[in-house]
Structures are given as structure tokens and as C-alpha cells.
Amino acid sequence: MGVIVNKKDTDNELSRRINADLRAKAMETANIDDGGDVDLAEDAEYLRDLKKTGRFGWVWIVLIGLAILSLISIVFM
Q1: Chain segment 32-48, per-residue pLDDT in tens
Q2: With 0-12 CB in 10 A as exposed, 13-18 as middle and 19+ as buried, what is 30?
Q3: Are the CB atoms for 65 and 59 separated by under 8 Å?
Q4: Does pTM top 0.70 for this prediction?
């Protein structure tokens, strides 16, 4: 739904009702209870079942690096 609003029409009843409705929908969507800062990055649906990286996550990086080095040495020797 779109409404064309001119500068002189900003104080009419329709504009006030539309603004109030949009503000109410935004507050419902935001779901802000205490009015503080809300960080929804970790509440996202695709992150719900993921675990944080353990303390041995660096081992995977080392293994991938060694695998790349071994592939390079096999190809060029």
C-alpha cells in the first residue's frame, strides 16, 4: 500500500493515522521490552542450532594449510 504525501498534506488525519499504524507495527516487529539496545544477530533462525568454535579450532586451519602445502609439493615435484 502506498500513499503519496505532499508537503502541505503532512498534518492531515490520514497521515497521522498512517504514521501511528506504521510506528505500532514497527514496535511489534522490533519486540523491544526495555527500550535498550537489541542485538538480534545470535537470535537468527539459521544460527539457532550452531555451536561456537571450540578451543581446538586452530587445528583445522593448520591441517588445511598442510594439505595445501602437500598438494603444491606434489604438483611441482
Answers
A1: 555 556 666 666 777 77
A2: exposed
A3: no
A4: no
